[in-house]
Specification:
10 helices; 2 strands; 271 residues
């Protein structure tokens, strides 16, 4: 049988984007218009298109993998009892087909679940960063001043853990949802392939920087406006509200990101 992976020149575990990229590259090379209307090129182009059509469809690809595995294992269509007209053989075929369809559906559901979880992680990370920055800028808590040395050490450790968690989540979001556009020279010399990722890295970085600065500015503005009306509260609990900005305030947003991400992960596992 035809091995569509070999036709496109990709591995069996190639991702959807790798399959698409290989197809576009071969299609540009073997298109009949590029090869002077050659019949051989037309046949090759049709075969490439058929391979891409199968491998780009999850169900068709799963069935193609099943056939390849049977072929490699040495089973033929004629020597298998499953091709018999025996009622038991027909029942076995129905069970096998149903089991294969169930595996395909389960795979699609699991892939969708992983994609939803990854999207939630990216969104929760960014939202918790912006919100925590906003509220820290409002209240400017003086927790550091009221802590002893062991408590300060714990705060620093949590800050470093939160910083690493923030970096890890943002990097994963960049890899999954952003792409780097080609240079002007490459765009002119070669046809630019449309990325299946929604944002450029520049747009994502701009959103993060502008969103963080706006959250900080909004929090400082609200905090300065509230201070005159909350003087009694400030006097009662000075460690929770202060008028001045201090360096240790940078500790709190990453810790908030760490807490939100941990709670989200636990909730997903429980669910």
């Amino acid at each position: 049988m035809l091995n569509y992976y070999k036709i496109l020149g990709v591995k069996r575990n190639a991702s959807a984007s790798e399959v698409k990229s290989a197809y576009r590259k071969l299609a540009r090379q073997r298109h009949p218009d590029v090869n002077g209307g050659s019949e051989q090129a037309a046949r090759e182009f049709d075969l490439i298109a058929r391979a891409y059509r199968v491998l780009s469809d999850p169900q068709e690809r799963a069935y193609h993998d099943y056939q390849l595995t049977r072929s490699i294992s040495g089973f033929s269509r004629h020597d298998s009892v499953l091709n018999s007209d025996n009622p038991h053989a027909r029942r076995i075929r129905q069970v096998a087909v149903q089991a294969r369809m169930n595996r395909i559906v389960d795979g699609l559901i699991e892939a969708e679940r992983r994609e939803t979880f990854a999207m939630q992680q990216a969104v929760f990370t960014v939202v918790s960063l912006f919100l925590s920055t906003f509220f820290v800028a409002i209240f400017k808590p003086r927790l550091w001043d009221s802590m002893n040395l062991p408590a300060r050490a714990v705060l620093v450790v949590l800050f470093l853990m939160g910083l690493w968690q923030l970096f890890t989540r943002l990097r994963a979001g960049y890899e999954r949802y952003t792409y780097q556009p080609k240079s002007i020279h490459d765009s002119i010399m070669r046809e630019e392939e449309k990325s299946d990722k929604p944002f450029t890295r520049f747009a994502a970085s701009t959103f993060l920087v502008v969103g963080y600065m706006l959250s900080l500015a909004a929090g400082l503005f609200v905090g300065s406006s509230m201070y005159a009306f909350m003087y009694d509260l400030v006097s009662a609990v000075p460690f929770l509200f202060a008028p001045q900005v201090r360096p240790e305030l940078i500790f709190y947003p990453p810790i908030a990101v760490l807490i939100v991400d941990t709670l989200h992960t636990i909730a997903v596992k429980i669910d």
